[in-house]
Protein 1
Amino acid sequence: MGRRIINRHPGRGSALFWGALPFLVLVVLYVTFSALRLAENPNDKLLPAFASIADAIGRMALEPDKRSGDVLLWADTAASLSRLGLGLAGATLLGLTGGIAIGLVPYARAGLAPVVAVLSMIPPMAVLPILFIVFGLDELSKVVLIVIGVAPFLIRDLALKVAEIPSELVIKAQTLGASTWQIVTRVVLPQVVPKLADAVRLSLGPAWLFLISAEAIAAQDGLGYRIFLVRRYLAMDVILPYVAWITVLAFLMDWALRRFNRSVFPWLARGAS
Amino acid sequence: MSRVTVHELWKEYGDQVVLERVNLDIPSGEFCAMVGPSGCGKTTFLRLLLAMERPTRGRILVDGRPLPPEPGPDRGVVFQRYSAYPHLTVLGNVVLGLEFQRAPLLARLFGAARRRAEDEAMAVVDAVGLSHARDKYPAELSGGMQQRLSIAQALVRKPKVLMMDEPFGALDPGTKAQMYELVQGLWRDERMTVFMVTHDLKEGFTLGTRVLAFDKTRHDPDEPGAYGATVTFNLPLDEKAERAEIVARLPALAASDADE
């Protein structure tokens, strides 16, 4: 009788193999069906061969565009990342201040918690038209959409995390003579910033969603703009690498935030008891 | 000097009376062990003394003055757990109290001021026997060491009254015995008034110079919350040498009270 499957663990190499397997399967499936379709119709655009994708990447990432003179992939990346960065920075700042205020100060909780709870229920995409009307069609409305979409979640999550700090620690600080400000800076902040970083990691997905939606609707550049632009020509050879590139960017941001937590807050990992 | 007077203290939560008719006069420097069954208001009394909560009726006076309405550096506390800051090292945890005091805006000290504060904090860390662990984080310490750290933290601001809520409840017997010695030594040196909640009668009589027993004197079987607990026994342990010293200081206290 073998062991139960819940007690059988893959070794290092075996785990690597099992992790790589789904990717391999996807690639093989793609290559097979692409070849099948291209054999039938050499002009098929739906599943382009890797060679034509590589061509498109070369065109987008290495050669300047004939009309604008920019190298499109990098110009799009810069535009999208600056929007995403500004939006996430604004949302993080709001999340930090709002969350700490609601979690720590009873009057702020009484005054802000209900309105944040209601605002967080508004589907952000539904207010996008309002943002376009109020802030115009350029950068600001896209940044504000990300802020509106992500900040309520960050505020509520952080307020919970602040409230989860054992009251003993806050009382103790008071018996050591700490003012509210000192409690915020020395007791609350160091304990919730790692949790804020985790919450931001979780909201990377929604943030990208809002960014690409806004770019799809009204923009002159950006990764989302490009995808929706070339969709008109069924240019899968551009869309696929763009999607892959967006995934890589999102993954790198997630990885960087995880690294940030581990390197800035060594006590998180030490003596896990 | 920190004489604690409690006058006709009541604490109610809605319909439920937790404490009723508590009257106490604790001379400065007394070590009060508070014993009694679970849920009879010992911890509530401690919270009232800390000013984490306000009494429903009655007054608490420290040296004849009403208790401030919120926790402050005159009253230190050691909780059963969650007492140390997980993001600071042992030394950082103890220095924190001095940083709160000396750096109102940043709560951080730098340069010579920091070194001076660290020296002071190290003296306290030494006193509780943690100098070998000064750079460790609380999660790396055993339960007994964490309680030593918590005590060091509370002592660095030299509180007049020290409150401990079952500080040794989670420790093994060997560690407990060490902690008794430590706490008694520190209490003698600092001459604080100590209030300690304990489940353990023996611990109360070992450490205290006065034992306060909390219990309910009246019961209503139909409505368990109708009556609260009170101090049923207030037992100064006069046979203890330490207690004699406290009593010896008493007349002076009484005289200064009469002047007011």
Note: Chain B touches chain A at residues 50, 52, 70-73, 75-77, 79, 81-83, 85-88, 96-97, 99-101, 104-108, 136-137, 139-141, 153-154, 156-157, 159 (CB under 8 Å).
Protein 2
Amino acid sequence: MQLTGLDRFLWATGFCCNPLLLLVLFRRDRARSFPIFTTFIAFIFVKTVVLYFIYRFLPGDDYISASRFFLIADEILQFLVLFEIALHVFRPTGVWARDVWKTFAGTACVSVVVALPMAWLAVPSTATPARAIYVRGVFLCAVLMSELFVGMLALSATEGLPWKTHVARIAQGLGAYSIVCVVTDSISNYLGNEPHVFAVLASLRTTASLVCEGYWIAMLWQEAPAPRELPESMLTQIYALQRQVADDLTRIRDWRRS
Amino acid sequence: MRDLYFAGLAVLFLATLTGVALHYFLRARRSAGTTLEGLLKQLIWIDRDKIEAIAMDAVAESGEPRPDDNAFSLDSSAIWSLLGGLEGLEALEKNCRVLVDLAAYLQRWHPEALVVAEQLRLNAREIEWHVGRLKGAAQTGNLQSSFGDYAQRAVVTYYFMTRRLLELYDRSGFAGIAELQSAL
């Protein structure tokens, strides 16, 4: 396997971006709020280093096996990051919003139902059935990720649950990247395993991930807009209001039209 | 042939996904940039006396169900008429949407009021749910049977929620209280 100048450049850029993003996450204390996302970025960094050494010092087959292993772990971590985002958005008071959990689970089920036939229809031109299953699996994950991202966006807008600044930025980056992955994987499945096409699509995917990381570095470095302070008296009144409304609602739910 | 089906489905999928994502992204952005005054301006005027009449037919001032024999004296057609028909229901629904956005505003800018904002959001969503059921029943011609179950309950919830909200704003000396009062 030969690397072009562009491949080397992308690899080197990724090698610089990952530690920089990690630095931002720890320096700005975002790692505490987003432990899974931080783990994901640390994983990408480790992956870049390990794959580089495997490429340089071990046979080509080892590189392919290792890159497949890392890609599977990468997909799993991406789902976990999405779940972490869901925890931030749909649990505003620390527990799942009462009206959201079922809809969220329903969205996930619909996403699977839509993604499965797409992955089944894909006809990857691969040498072995095992490789075909692998390619389909990767495509399935990309479709699912993009669906879940859009589903979460729609659900939060409908339910009136706002995205806090950094959660929104992480989700936007991941969502945009997953849509690019669906595009590249669809083209790859349609056009087959032409080496030239494969190389262009792989570069496109890597470029998208680097743009995404650049966006995260810039956005996570900035502080979120400061909350607007409420006077102490107003706060006390708000808590009184909450208790009154909760009592009202309990009574209303209990009454029956005679 | 299968390749073509796949290509068609992929294009359709991507177009739908991008369209939906863009729609909700822009909606979230608009909502994030709204001010409190801007939100309150979106409220639609509702005849509060009529809302109160429907609510007080079912419950007492305290919120407890009325124990007397005169409770629930309004029949479905009287409630429907007081509400202003489907138009009145839609106004109620739109105001609830504004209240949901108001809750989102509180959650975004005043994290210390998170609990009450979440309660407000849940209440507004509950009324939206009742109103949605009524609209659905009106469209399928089953309004008569569903009305008793949902309409009065929605109005009572709306009445108490907005009353509490008005009390809060009144006590806080909010400048737009008169506008808010006339709309809710």
Note: Helices of chain B lie at 2-33, 36-41, 48-58, 76-83, 85-109, 114-140, 143-172, 177-183.
Protein 3
Amino acid sequence: MSSPTDRVYSPSHEWHKVEGDTLTLGLTRFAVDQLTDVTYVEMKKPGFKFKSGDIVGEVESVKTTSDIYCFATGEVTAVNAALGDNPGLLNSDPYGAGWLIKAKITDKAGLEKCIDAKAYDQQHP
Amino acid sequence: MLRTPLHQFHLDHKAHMVDFAGWEMPLTYFGLIDEHKQVRASGGIFDVSHMGRVKFTGRHARRFLERACTRKISDMQPGQCRYSLVCNEQGGVRDDVIVYRLDDDEFLMVVNASNRAKILQHFEALKAAWDFAFKMDDQTADTAMVALQGPKVIELIGQYSREIPTLKRYRFVLKNLMIAKLIVSRTGYTGEDGVEVILPSGTVGLALKYLLQGVDMNAPHAVLRPAGLGARDTLRTEAGMPLYGHELGEEINALSCGVDFAIALDKDQGERGEAFVGMEALKKTKAEGGPARKLAGFILDGKRAARQGAIIRQNGRDVGVVTSGCPSPTLGVCIAMGFLDVALHAPETPVEIDTGKGVLAAKVAPLPFYKMPKAG
């Protein structure tokens, strides 16, 4: 299964989609398959400022609890409210309706640690 | 990585495969929670071929197992199986096992995949030290093991066998299917009724085809659907069953694990009595008033789960540690097991669980969390 080519992928399996100074962050299909069914999502609230590599939330699945990292620097502007009622969206549509947060980014430097879809899919077939 | 005889079955059913104790095993097929609910409501089929299967044959097989296992072996009837521990000299747990008595001098033992090499080595050492005459044969690679679990499993099997539905819990029968010899036992690790089947590797395809004729396992309402190791873990947690590496371990005193029924501290008594490895240490523990902490259940407030290693506190004081925890698909709350000071075991006793990032409120709850409804 190929990952979308309009975003970059971190070593900890978050996808980062940058449009201007807006970033959308989510988890890859590979990551959610490892987690198994997601039961609870707790992301940092709008206004939370973070640096590249900081933890911006936690995802709880039946099997495990996992920290979510962001590789850009910026401030959370929105969290995906739909995940509150239906955390399973993360499993069913990780690249679309299961997005985690949106952020206004002030520095993209950390995204250099990320790789493109082709390289990610090669590492995680 | 090692593969089981059901590998193609897993691929055919689109399993998400993972490494488990060196075996390539299915974690999930169509969703962990759905698989869990399928087993509670109807039936699931689990590949447990990664577990070790070791046969003991010969004059001293019984005496050997009597000394190696914490549970009484000599009074078992052929056709009976028993859950037991294998302990170390300190009274810690080397493994938990199921012993099948096939005949007077013939036994089969099922051990955990992660402990197979260690247990075989331990047994070889004991055998040499005691100078016992019997043959120990690791049959893991030559056989497969499949668990069929759920309230509708016995009815399904009843279409093919009149005898199997009459089996009592922890009894087994030997069945012939064409040229294959099967061991079918009324056992399991889910808290549901069902069976576990041990059969020659080469006959798995045939046996499944035979059993599953007329069952479309891809249909959402099929009587039987595949279930992975993920669901197996949440099912056994709801059933309050211990898992090696969590509730059981070399450093964990056997009398603290909630399986006292499987520890016979008097088994050296009587004509054919034998002391087991670790018995002296456990007798000492008991004489001193028992372990300071024992296994307890917890139900948490809120949606956050407690995981292995989280510290249990009461009024700031360290009173225990979590060994397993997950959101319970059946109960709809987060459940956990852990070792807790014995003075605090009364149900509803409030505790705090420190996850390292936050503190979760929880109450002590009786084990098991889930009991199958009585047939009626």
Note: The mean pLDDT of chain B is 96.
Protein 4
Amino acid sequence: MTAVLCRHFGMKHIEIAEDIASDTFLKASENWAINGIPKNPTAWLYTVAKNKSKDHFKRASIFESQVKNELTSGKLQEEQHFEFDSQQIADSQLAMIFAVCNPANSAEAQICLALQILCGFSVEEIANAFLAKPETIKKRLLRARANLRNDNFQLVNLTEADIKSRIETVLKTLYLVFNEGYFSKTNDQLIRKDLCSEALRLALVLIAHPLTNTPQSNALLALMCYQSSRLEARINHNGEAIAYEQQDSKLWDQSLIDRGNYYLINAFDGPEISKYHLEASIAYWHSTIVDGNKWQHILQLYDQLMITAYSPVIALNRIFALAKVHGCEKAISEAEKLDMSDSNYYHQLLGYLYADKDIEKAINHYQLAIRMTKSKVEQQTLRKEIERLSPSNQICRNKGKQF
Amino acid sequence: MKEFALIFRINDINFKPSPEQMQERMNWLAGIVAQNKLVDKGNTLLPIPGSAVTVHANNVTTDGPYTEIKEFISGYIIVKTETIEEAVELAKSNPIFKIGGNIEVRELLKT
């Protein structure tokens, strides 16, 4: 809703648009509690927003005409036409996505902005998701908003050139919002799901528009579908992460996997292979149980990813795939070549690789990893792993076997 | 890398895939895509009268697809693999065999 309003007001007046939007929802919650939810809630909301905007402009124009006479015949006198049909809503949302994903802002600031403006999260909710202080988030948002205003991005007619110049930033922001949910530091399952589904929703907005329905957007959406299909399976009732191998594949959401397949096929309609294509392909193999060669496929895809989009995380994930295909020994020697002893994931990986060979070393690495991570969920999971490996438990297990 | 056409044939002219069967085929295709082995999604070819005519010599035309051996081509895709064996492996997991169809694997002549 803020997006539609902003299209009329311009980015400079985003606060007004936001105020009207939240006023509208306030009115809705009062009215609907008494009268019940109307037949067409969307239309109801937009009608109220429309009237509120008109009121605002009337007030503004009276104010302007009394204080500054020269503005009487200005823009604000014009009758504002508000169209709230679904096409308008879709176009405005798309334009807003592109306005928010401004390369002038840091990646972190862009995620915050996207969450606030595009997804309607409160400062507190964003702070929770980032495990940061609300003050920090507030400051970050203020700076980022100032940048948006200065940019004065045209919201009305999104041109092909605008889209081309920003689509990469847009995709990256959506990717980050999704990952923020999927690999969130918070153990609040609700926040996690919210972030993921909002990123998915925004990616769907891109797919719905011919100019942004590109192979890359499809690949990103496919990736999100595959990952989301496992959201239920990867966290247990206590909010602890469940390793991929211990997940109950019956909890995977097959309809999301099917949707992922659809977008993945669309993504490969052309010669272009982006990092999203490769990551989505890897996610495909993680969502399928049938193929015996799946780790080989995954390793190949990671090899390609290393070339097109190297990152330490990818290097570590590749080693995991390598261990699955060629065994732990080879993986350990490759891992130790990486020399990433300041990364907690590096130690988690080595802990895993050493688990069957050298328990002492494995525990050592896990302990280092615990010290390096801030995430409570991760710490819990790692402690459990150490407990499972520790010698006293091993003896118990052996005794158990004898009886 | 070589390229191969996978040519699908079925024998039931009235066959209409159920949503589940379409999904199954799509999931098979996604598996090829996720190995980056798809060159062209190809097309489905409609076999029904009005959508298919076969043209013979001397201006003779007949309705419907060319069905000398009681089966007709229902579509094709193009994949890329190192060897024909690999392409055959891809074809083997296609759900078409459940409905009595078959797949012809043919290498594309590259000039």
Note: The mean pLDDT of chain B is 90.
